[in-house]
Amino acid sequence: MTALPTTPTGHPPSPAPDPLRRLVDDEVLARCADEPIAVPGAVQPHGALLAVTERDLAVVVASANAADVLGTTPATLADLLTPAELDRLGEALAGDLVEAGPMRVAPGGAELDLVLSRSGGLLVTEWEPVAGAGQAGAAWHRRLPTVLQRLSAPTTLEGLTAVLAREVRALTGFDRVMVYRFDAEWNGEVVAEDRRADLEPFLGLHYPAGDIPAQARALYATNWMRLIPDATYTPVPLEPPLVPGTGRPLDLSGAMLRSVSPVHLEYLANMGVTASMSVSLIDRGRLWGLISCHGYSGAHRPSYADRTAAEFLGRTASLLLHTVVGAAERDGMVAVAQREAELVAAIGRTPRTPAAALVDGDRTVLDLLPAAGAAVRLDGRLHLLGATPPAERVAAVVPAVLRAGGVTDRLTLALPGFDDVADDASGVLAVEVGGRRGDFLAWFRPETPREVSWGGDPRTSKVTDGRLSPRRSFARWTETVRGTARPWREHEVTAARALAAHLGEAVLARAGEDDRLAAALQRTLLLEELPKVPGVVLGARYRPSEADVVGGDWYDLVPLPSGRLAVVLGDAAGHGLTAASVTAQLRHALRAALLRDEGPAAALAELNRLVAALLPGEMATAVVVQLDPASGELALASAGHLPAVHAGDGAARLVTDGRGPALGLLDDAGYPQATLRLESGDRLLLYSDGLVERRDRPLPDGLEAVRAVVAGAVGTPQEVVDAVVDALDPAGTDDVTVVGLARV
Amino acid sequence: MQFAVDRVAVHGRPGLRVRGELDIATVAQLASSVAAELAASPRTLVVDLTETTFLDSSGARQLARTAKDAAAAGTALQVVCPRENAPVRLVIDLLELQRLVPVVESASLSGGEVGS
């Protein structure tokens, strides 16, 4: 590489395995970073330097070759310049030196380009012979408008850098011109190249961050161009070495003749480079990369005008970088945003089942952004798409990543204990879904063992005699970087979070809507008032759950064609809208079955078949009694329900016969039927588990309490029902339903 | 007791130990643990309710679903619930869950001792 001093610099900031693990200690690195590249005390020999006072142009510091280049040893610039030239110099000094441009002068007869700059309160004048410089000629400069047009035409980075490499080589005549891009850790990669046909390509090669130390990068971010026409040059010392009056060496960071580090010259020699030039590429103030030019066949010095044109191309490309990189980024962002909108729309179309919208649709959550696998956990259910770790590992990995910030492109290196999922999940992007605890969306990217081709083994820099020596071998050296995945882009993370936020709102909105619907549905399940059945006295109490969700209790009274009365009390498992909807279907189906008047057991068997066929996965319990008000004959059948209480003569018992399995448990079940007689003055009590279910009271104790209260209660069935509810003091976390009946 | 579903080995067979209150608030945890186990289609699976302190209808429904899912996966499911755990065992008995899945006093090699 051109102008890339070789001394390694500080450690890369990343926690990634440092592929450039240095064989040097920190102290040496620190000293190295202090190497005075701005104040080398010497210049290159292809020109002479005079530092003069600005007031009277008296020479203060001169390079030792001044007499050779200028033909004389001047005391002031008046010894070198004509009065007319001195006037022009005065005008230049009064204006902006950067805009002054070189002056063409000939103090000793030979033409020189005189370049002006300021440093440490002095005017720095550099005198470079025109003879001996390569000239691209006027033809190239006439083509400049075309070149600029070509440079600004590409919409991709590849296009822009390719044009840049080609045009800079055409302009400067170097054997090889590369565009070199830094990554976040300052390793470089050759992203474009134009070269002599017989040279080995360097395109795609990587160079370790250490090849360009931090202080060199700092210099390159402000100084656009460096030139070494002859990499075998002998430095020319400045005399005196320290500026009189200040006692400090002259700062040459803005000088074109600045002598470079001997370590860097050794580095170039190791690469076979005999002449080099580099132009900075700076994107919005940050060093983005370099245009790096190599000559391999002796000294090579493009003219000052050609170098200026190359620098101009570099500056122009720098301005364009932002727009082409931005355009590529924008394309990705637009695509991700579009898919996000599609998913949000899908959720909107089926707000009841957001998981289905994300998992089963034409567009799934896996399409949101480039990833190999995705996981959706909603309402506690985990759905996996594409290549992911197994479910139980997803359940462990995602919360761990969420705790660590939600984004990693190196899971196994960042968090312990996940080595087994590295293949599928080296990259994890996880976002929480609000509304339900523990719900999330997550995307997975596989480990991408990256082949990195280094221009030489990056680890070969060594300390010898307390000084770093540059890498000697530049043979292509390939390394595999493991444990990392393709990084998550900022817009991808943003889209994932936006989708999760939307989903959280949808879930919350759905929950609220569900509650209203369920409550409305539940009201239709309850009787406005108890029907008047001759010969029967009824009492009932329904107390909805104190929680925001509605339970699945129902009760029903069905006068039958035979003149008998069927009384039903049931409870569908679960809460909320689903339970309420299941309850509504059960109630109406059971009503229809009962109206066949084949008895409670037959009705339950029919209902069970219906649940198994039409409501798979649901479960409910119910007890059905059928009373002949005239005779007091009572038939009872229970599908997994809590035992009814039969009270009479100051005693009460739990009715434990007439029992069969809960509804929905078996595809087909027969139910036995108990028969008993409800004497005048007897009472029968049916109830749901909300009455007896309390965390602090075991169920057997709750049943005994109900039995005891009913045994001791007096009054109408309604009074008994109220007494039982008051005495049992149910928890209120579930619906409480109690129905009592007696004969007149 | 904090609710937890732990993976355990019962006589070398995969098992899930359910501790605490299995109800509408915690049932999803059992569901996902069961789904994870059944994904591997084991020959047998034990769900141990010995340390389950409470079982509501949602929890019971999940046990029923688990039994059906296990059957579909070709996995022989066994539920362990000793009679000493009366609050939970009574719910199981009332629902007659044992008509769907063997409910046993303790995990056994034979898988016998089907509850009443």
Name a few traits of the molecule.
heterodimer; A: 744 residues; alpha+beta; Beta-Lactamase; Phosphatase 2c, domain 1; rod-shaped; B: 116 residues; alpha/beta; Transcription Regulator spoIIAA; 28% strand; disordered C terminus
SS class of chain B: alpha/beta
Helix content of chain B: 25-40%
CATH fold annotation of chain B: Transcription Regulator spoIIAA
Which of globular, elongated, flat, extended, rod-shaped describes the shape of chain B? globular
CATH architecture of chain B: 2-Layer Sandwich
| Number of E strands of chain B | 6
Please give the largest β-sheet of chain A. Answer: 7 strands, antiparallel
- End-to-end C-alpha gap of chain B: 29 Å
Our count of helices of chain A gives 19
Largest interface: A-B, 37 and 30 residues
Name the shape of chain A in a single word.
Answer: rod-shaped
Element pattern of chain B in H and E: EEHEEHEHE
Number of strands of chain A: 33
- State the low-pLDDT regions of chain A, or none: 1-33, 463-467
| The CATH superfamily title of the domain at 526-743 in chain A | PPM-type phosphatase domain
User: Which oligomeric form is depicted?
Assistant: heterodimer
Task: Describe the fold and architecture.
Chain A: Keywords: Chromophore, Hydrolase, Photoreceptor protein, Receptor, Sensory transduction. Chain A: InterPro entries: Bact_Sigma-Reg (IPR052016), GAF (IPR003018), GAF-like_dom_sf (IPR029016), PAS-like_dom_sf (IPR035965), PAS_2 (IPR013654), Phyto_chromo_attachment (IPR016132), Phytochrome (IPR001294), Phytochrome_cen-reg (IPR013515). Chain A: Residues 156-315 form the Phytochrome chromophore attachment site domain. Chain A: This is PAS fold-containing protein. Chain A: One of its GO terms (molecular function) is phosphatase activity. The complex is a heterodimer of chains A (744) and B (116). Among the domains of chain A are: 333-449 and 484-512, Beta-Lactamase (2-Layer Sandwich); 526-743, PPM-type phosphatase domain (Phosphatase 2c, domain 1, 4-Layer Sandwich). The longest helix of chain A is centred in the middle third of the chain and has 46 residues, at 304-349. Chain A is α+β, with helices and mostly antiparallel strands and 744 residues long. Chain A contains 19 helices and 33 strands. Chain A is rod-shaped and about 140 Å long. Chain A has a 7-stranded antiparallel beta sheet. A 6-stranded antiparallel beta sheet of chain A has the order 9-8-7-13-12-10. In chain A, strands 24, 25, 26, 27, 30 and 31 form a 6-stranded mixed beta sheet that branches. In chain B, strands 1, 2, 3, 4, 5 and 6 form a 6-stranded mixed beta sheet that branches. Chain B contains 3 helices and 6 strands. Chain B has 116 residues and is α/β, with parallel strands linked by helices. Chain B has helices at residues 27-38, 57-73, 86-95; strands at residues 4-10, 13-22, 44-48, 52-55, 76-80, 103-104. Chain B has one domain: 2-Layer Sandwich (Transcription Regulator spoIIAA). Residues 109-116 of chain B have low confidence and may be disordered. The longest helix of chain B has 17 residues, at 57-73. Chain B is globular. Classes of the chains: A alpha+beta (744), B alpha/beta (116).
